[in-house]
Amino acid sequence: MDQSTGDNGFSLARREDRLIWIFGSSRSGSTWLMRMLAELDGAVPIDDPHLGHHLGVWRPIPLAWATADTDPELTILNEIKRDKPSYFFSDRYRHVWEPALRDLIVRRFDAQALDEGNGVAEPLVVVKEPGSHIADLLLSLFPSSRMIFLLRDGRDVVDSWLDAHRAGAWALDEGAFPVAPRGREALIRWQSSVWSYRTGVVMGAYRRHDPSRRVLVRYEDLLRDPARELARICGSIGLEVERSRLRDIAREHDYESIPSDEKGATKEVRSAQPGGWQRHMSAAEQAAMYEAMGDRLVEVGYLPGFRTERVA
User: Fold this and answer.
1) Measuring CA to CA, which residue among 308, 130, 152 is closest to residue 223?
2) What is the pTM of this model?
3) In this structure, how many other beta carbons lie within 10 angstroms of the beta carbon of residue 2?
4) In this structure, which topology does domain 16-299 adopt according to CATH?
5) Which of 46, 81, 155, 259 is most exposed, with minimal Cβ within 10 Å?
6) Vertex 230, ends 225 and 233: CA angle to 5°?
7) Runs of H (alpha helix) within the chain
8) Average pLDDT estimate for 89-105
9) Using omega within 30 degrees of 0 as the cis cutoff, is the peptide bond preceding 99 cis?
10) pLDDT, tens digit, 9 for 90 and up, residues 25-65
11) Tens of pLDDT along 67-77?
12) What are the domain boundaries of the chain?
């Protein structure tokens, strides 16, 4: 493997522990968290490289949730094709593509760290990866990297995606569309399936990862006490940051500090109030959501009758 470095001598190939992934579901406060972490000395944020959307293609396509007789089982192309020798990322040739893929990712992140690291000798590369359904693959490539599992109630995640598929919403510039009234339930079922699948993959990856290199943060806890949760994250990274500094960072990025014309319905920064799904979805829509994600909600502690401590 090529171990080349940037002009400052730094490379993630040699300092893999300086790579920090934010995994979880999109619309979980990951942008907010990344912006706070970007305030730490030497941090270089990489916002949405979308590795998962290139390397983990959904199967079947979302249209299936509107046209199939029953909701299909969601998976990714990699899982379907992995045993077929001619598939580019087949298990048979993993020994060939795996080091090459790792080197490609290292070179790409190194280049951005060099551009934006302001001469820091060993920057902290914080990657917010929305395609977290390949978290297991990425951590297998970078076993010494660190991971933040940002977990949010899937019902609020789906509610946020519903808002993003409204006329005038921020997501329309990124490939979304205004959903028709008759299509709301299909969109809810699709997004619920995505949240469930992603959460399952990240949870499994979290459990297998080195406990000293991982931390699980619930969005709801981050909302209640961001400085405390930032301190937990810094501890998992091995950083010593004064609590007063973390409180300042949290205050600077607080929802109330964002200009009113940059937040709210249809905006990327939408709301800091969990539970909106109860007001925004009909009983039938809520039932459809529970059918798709109910088991996972129970598993990770967002339904009554299940412990709500951190995932073990």
Assistant:
1) 152
2) 0.92
3) 10
4) Rossmann fold (3.40.50)
5) 259
6) 135
7) 30-37, 51-55, 64-67, 77-81, 94-116, 135-141, 154-164, 184-208, 219-224, 226-237, 243-252, 277-280, 283-299
8) 98
9) no
10) 999 999 999 999 999 999 999 999 999 999 999 999 999 99
11) 999 999 999 99
12) 16-299
